[in-house]
Amino acid sequence: TIQGYIASIDTLTNELVLTNERRTDRLVIGLNELYAIE
Question: The organism sits in which domain of life (predicted)?
Answer without folding.
Answer: Bacteria
